[in-house]
Batch of 3 targets.
Target 1
Amino acid sequence: MKTLAILMCMQIAAAISDSSRPTTDTERDANRKPAETLAFMGIKAGDKVADYAPGSGYFTRLFSDVVAGKGHVYAAVPGALYEYPNIVKGTDEILQFAAKHPNVTVSFGSVNDTVRYPEKLNVFWISQNYHDLHDSFMGPVDMAAFNKAVYDALVPGGTYVVLDHSAAPGSPADVTDTLHRIEPGTVRREVESAGFVFDGESKILANPGDPRTAGVFDKSIRGHTDQFLYKFRKPAR
């Protein structure tokens, strides 16, 4: 196990130091803490990973390096997000990357369609977009059905990792739309209801100084929001 952990750390370090990473990615490393995030996820060579709502592909590119030739990354773009210019631009960048990296597949479709994959996954990752699933422009999504689909997409023992902006306790339901935040407890309740077991959290992106009263794009807090990172596991049996 110790040897595997060392190997995983080496793979992650190599991915982060890859000279082909765009400057727009490396400039975000200080705020996104990729080494700690990927180590917490437990991602390794050979894994099959879903990067759900991948944005501009920051994590898609890192995942591609780590899982290497025997692994695969499924960058799943739900159609409701593809209406936004920044998502269109970011997706185009992922498509250009995928054209040169055969271990990356980009898919488009409805929320339900983009949780279906041609093989079972080891890891399902959603970063700063779980809260969007609660908003009207996304459906809103039937969260019980969505999380059950994630459960079904994973191998036994597979992991479901959620990173999002934290909302204050007792926030109104529309905080997911007004401030682009969500209560961590809401995520736990919904994901565990699908049969997942809570497998830990990381405080690496927590910011106790964030009053959680401003939207995540507000210049007073952008890039420094209080974020929670949760890992859930599908039971091995």
Note: The longest strand covers residues 154-165.
Target 2
Amino acid sequence: MTGASGQAAAPSDAAPLPPGDAGAGVPGDTASAARAETAARLRTAVGRLARRIRPTRVGAELTLTEVTVLATTARNGPVGLSWLASEEGMNPTMLSRVVWRLEDAGLLARRPDPRDRRAALVDATPAGHKLHERIRAERADALSQLIEHLGMAEREALDAALPVLEQLARDLKDRRP
């Protein structure tokens, strides 16, 4: 068998495709197509879950960006504005506006960085921590109620998938430009 260049094609370990399958005759194409399909389905499912779990009664007055900045700050604070902008993938000007709105709402407090007086640190206020925890609890409760209705096999499959999903999340964070 010869490839497009006229040279002999390398033997393939891939199983032959049924007639009419896309990519038939291209070694490894079936596995690549399957990975692409899995990635697309995973992205869709995770996106839908995230969109459907985001809205909360307790955080309804905040935008999604404000909730995310509050959560990141509450978990990691006090943090520098440049680190926070990088972590959130936001430009510093937009982040400053979000931080200002959260400060105005009494949820974040800004103070000078003791190591560099030209820079500022932000941290969640007690009210910010309380709101963050209420949002987290509401979202966790919504998911818990859904998981409760799953069958035992589905719950076990979900438990088994969690370490892989957590690793994918870490790997994606590390790959961000």
Note: The chain is about 60% helix and 10% strand.
Target 3
Amino acid sequence: MHVSPSTGSGGTLEPVPIPNVIPLFPLPNLVFFPRTYVPLHIFEQRYRDMVRAAAASHQMVGMVLLKEGWETDYEGDPAIFPMGCVGRLINVQPLSDGRFNILLQGLRRFEIQHEMGTESYRQGRIVLKDLSQLDTALPVEVRKELIKVVAGFMRNRDDASALSALLRQPIHDDVLVQNLSFALDFTPIEKQFLLESESLLQQGRRLLDLLQFKIHEGHEQTGCG
């Protein structure tokens, strides 16, 4: 589990220009979210090329999830989910053998309109997809229930301390929901389901449903409840 090292409390991100064509970085087990951070180790040649190009220009990378069956065409262009998250390169550490360690900051959701194959790595023309502005904050009762259920879900887990610290911070609802979506122990498909929410309230309710299902599943496996 990786919780954002600097989530901030505000409800808005500083505006950052995002081009309508960005590199795509598909992975089989990572779904990225706005307002979160992720460290990555870059070793494949095509993604070394991607980091160099992005670092020298707009500093943007589009994180997307590979669809099931990607193993049969990994070196080619396996199928990907069309919705992902723009990550900004906020730290790039070149290594002596050509690899990189990078730190990405999640900025905005996007949807791929079509791919453009002019480089060794995949690129896509994108349209940014913001959550509905009808609900910029969670209802008080939903936030309280979410924090209560998360606390129960994390009880007796080895990685509970980092998330417990997040829950105690006076952070904006959007920061809370995005970091929980990213950090909690859900499958990649479940996280993709959260990423594709149309509003903050819908994402919060989906989080609650997933958490309650996981808790119920855990009780069944242990014979409790």
Note: The first helix runs from residue 45 to 55.
